[in-house]
Design a protein that fits this description.
Layout: H1 2-19, E1 26-30, H2 45-50, E2 58-61, E3 67-72, E4 80-85, H3 86-90, H4 95-99, E5 100-105, E6 120-126, E7 131-142, E8 146-159, E9 165-169, H5 183-186, E10 190-195, E11 200-209, E12 212-221, E13 232-236, E14 242-245, E15 248-251, E16 259-261, E17 267-274, E18 277-282, E19 289-290, E20 297-303, E21 306-313, E22 316-324, E23 329-332, E24 338-345, E25 355-360, E26 363-368, H6 374-382, E27 390-394, E28 402-409, E29 413-420, E30 425-431, E31 443-449, E32 455-461, E33 469-474, H7 489-496, E34 499-505, H8 514-518, H9 527-543, E35 550-555, H10 557-568, E36 575-579, H11 585-590, H12 603-611, H13 615-620, E37 633-639, H14 648-659, E38 665-669, H15 679-693
């Protein structure tokens, strides 16, 4: 009996200890009980549900249509590929387990040679019916996107018959045993261009010659030995794809459209870059230049004398134009009221799109360029069944009788179907998300008119019950980034608690054209905030909610904007919550905050373009210098390791608030950089953020 009591006592103690988990990565806490960061599993089922990893992130049909390959990093599977027989997978009596024929796991390792702390499976392509080319990426910091995948030129090859998952290409050759060579000579990054035949595939290999890099279109054989990108040259450009003067580099080498192929997979165009722009060249004996700058465009494909180009602004493509390579004239081919390309659809072995999914005056539409095409007619029959969704039809098999239809938005996340023309059927493959559809909230497109008469767009997400709060969720960037109708765990989580979420694509956002983005330069604390405020006022009136139930929240630029709203528009926002923000624009401008970008050679040029050098204006835009005017409740958080918005910004903001006797709450995530972190980190800080926004902290 004593042994049983002792065992029960031990189990009770163990259970208490296990539940009483200390997170341990929070410091410099101000005005918050430190115990609230110790998340107890099961205490918030909504948070755990919205944080669940997707079942798969990408799926592709094999060229013969007999297999489906899934890229997965879910809670059920490790990161890697899972390949299943298509017909068995679609048979409800068999399902995934019985249909699976091969798995390839991606090891979570670093690459010390290339200086990459962690490697990730970033994409894959079927290159034959039994071989899958897998690209392995690292991560880097981007001025617009923050931490993103970085193409390294590392590839692996997965054979679904033999189950072999082997190293195929590594970009850096070892030093020679005799003589010497430079890093530039040994580093030969490769880019996948196209599948070719059962012997090999086409890749572009960027090789150094006299300080410049040249793109070599090369057939690389599957049975080659070693990991060097050796093979048979198909075309060698005579113009450099990377131009370098001193420490300034403009590189176009590692783009998937460095070569444009014809229907027989022969090169017809290639591209070069210098410090003035990007140029197309004929893939002839002289690599003849077509003298028109294409730096603001992304090549799509060539049809006769017309080069199709997508127009880019920041991270978003906002239109399609056609370049007549003979007359060098460029003409847009999309309606004037359309912007933000969501998806592009083309037929088998034809890169020219027959249709685009776009936003036109803020609403999703499909723009058809060739309605006589069979695929366009199929799409026009399917699309009405999926209103207000982003639709992609593609990945046709070699027999042109099977394809994948992908449906995406915030209310489904991503749902994949297989279209089987022989059977005349649309068969569900699955949803990427583990969140039930009835627990998802739809982002509804909104159009706003600003105080100066301009049109801007955004989204309003409503809770399923009573609206307790209006939370204005401000995206980062600010330039070139934009919000889409897509899944965002924090938005869904806050909506589940009763918040209406407003997202605004203020001026400066990407995807609305170059002028929309660049006209907002130097307007961090001006036009951008005015746009957000104007949209806030419109939604407050629409849903009948006032200042006492309205908060602003964001990270990166969104964190800056939230804090700035506390003195620019305190009459609109009862509370503001800013994470990872820049709060002193003077040290941002002169580079003394020592962010990662200050190490770049063109920092002064970039700083002048984005922020200007008018001290009075920079001070007016800086929350640090306006703490005495802040009238909203304030929460700040920051990553101690943040290289983009260094912790000095929050330190200065805290000091300014204290000097002016303005109350605030704050915390520092000691192991994080410019990110929300992993699930463990989010479970620690997201409930704190939620409680603050609902005035329950």
């Amino acid at each position: 009996m004593k042994k049983i009591l002792l065992l029960l006592t031990f189990l009770a103690f163990f259970r208490i200890s296990a539940d009483d988990h200390e997170y341990g990565w929070v410091q410099d806490i101000v005005g918050i009980d430190e115990n609230v960061f110790n998340y107890v599993e099961g205490s918030d089922p909504d948070l755990e549900m919205y944080l669940k990893s997707s079942f798969f992130t990408q799926v592709q049909l094999s060229p013969d249509g007999k297999h489906l390959a899934f890229q997965s990093k879910s809670d059920e599977f490790t990161e890697g590929l899972l390949v299943a027989r298509t017909d068995d997978f679609l048979d409800p009596k068999k399902g995934l387990e019985k249909a699976t024929v091969a798995k390839a796991a991606m090891e979570n390792t670093s690459d010390k040679v290339l200086g990459v702390p962690a490697l990730y499976l970033c994409s894959f392509n079927w290159v034959t019916n039994s071989l899958i080319l897998v690209e392995v990426c690292g991560k880097r910091f981007d001025r617009l996107q923050g931490e993103i995948f970085q193409n390294l030129g590392i590839f692996k090859l997965f054979n679904i018959k033999t189950k072999e998952f082997k190293n195929f290409i590594y970009p850096l050759e070892p030093p020679p045993k005799k003589g010497s060579s430079t890093f530039s000579d040994r580093y030969k990054p490769t880019t996948f261009i196209s599948a070719l035949d059962d012997e090999g595939l086409l890749m572009s290999v960027a090789e150094n010659r006299r300080g410049f890099r040249y793109a070599n279109l090369r057939k690389i054989f599957f049975d080659k030995r070693g990991t060097k990108p050796n093979g048979q040259n198909v075309y060698v450009s005579k113009e450099p794809c990377q131009f370098k003067t001193g420490y300034r580099v403009n590189s176009f080498c590692n783009t998937p459209f460095i070569y444009i192929l014809d229907k027989d997979k022969k090169p017809v165009l290639t591209f070069s870059s210098d410090l003035d722009g990007v140029y197309a060249h004929y893939a002839d004996d002289k690599t003849t230049k077509i003298d028109i700058d294409l730096e603001d465009y992304t090549p799509v494909g060539l049809k006769g004398k017309y080069l199709y180009l997508s127009e880019t602004s920041g991270l978003g493509a906002h239109g399609v134009s056609v370049l007549n390579i003979e007359t060098k004239e460029i003409q847009s081919i999309v309606p004037e009221d359309c912007h933000s390309i969501l998806t592009s659809m083309s037929s088998l072995n034809d890169p020219i799109p027959y249709a685009l999914g776009m936003e036109c005056d803020g609403q999703k539409e499909i723009i058809y360029f060739d309605q006589k095409k069979r695929d366009a007619q199929i799409l026009s029959q399917l699309a009405p069944s999926f209103p207000d969704k982003t639709i992609t039809l593609g990945n046709w098999t070699d027999a042109n009788d099977r394809a994948l239809l992908v449906i995406e938005d915030s209310s489904v996340v991503s749902e994949v179907f297989m279209l089987d023309l022989k059977q005349g059927a649309l068969k569900p493959i699955g949803r990427t998300s583990n969140v039930p559809k009835d627990r998802l909230h739809k982002m509804v497109s909104k159009k706003f008119t600003t105080r100066d008469g301009e049109s801007i767009y955004g989204y309003l997400t409503m809770p399923k019950g009573k609206v307790k709060r209006l939370i204005v969720y401000i995206h980062g960037g600010p330039y070139g980034i934009r919000d889409f109708d897509s899944y965002d765990f924090s938005e869904q989580y806050l909506a589940s608690k009763g918040a209406a979420i407003l997202k605004v694509n203020y001026r400066g956002s990407g995807g609305y054209g170059k002028d929309f983005m660049e006209d907002a330069y130097k307007e961090w604390g001006g036009t951008l905030l005015n746009d957000i405020a104007d949209a806030t006022i419109a939604v407050q009136k629409e849903i009948g909610i006032g200042r006492e139930q309205t908060c602003a929240f964001g990270a990166s630029y969104g964190g800056y904007a939230a804090l700035a709203m506390a003195y620019k528009y305190s009459e609109l926002y009862e509370c503001v919550a800013g994470g990872m923000g820049v709060y002193d624009m003077m040290i941002l401008r002169d580079g003394s905050d020592e962010s990662i970008y200050t190490k770049q050679d063109d920092y002064e040029e970039t700083a002048e373009k984005f922020w200007g050098d008018e001290a009075e204006r920079l001070i007016d835009f800086s929350p640090v210098f306006n703490a005495d005017k802040m009238k909203s409740r304030i929460l700040m958080w920051h990553g101690l390791q943040d290289p983009i918005s260094p912790i000095v910004h929050m330190d200065l903001m805290k000091q300014a608030l204290e000097d002016n006797n303005v109350p605030y709450q704050a915390f520092t995530m000691s192991k994080l950089g410019h990110t929300f972190g992993q699930k463990e980190d989010i479970k620690a800080h997201m409930p704190v953020l939620k409680d603050f926004l609902f005035d329950e902290l």
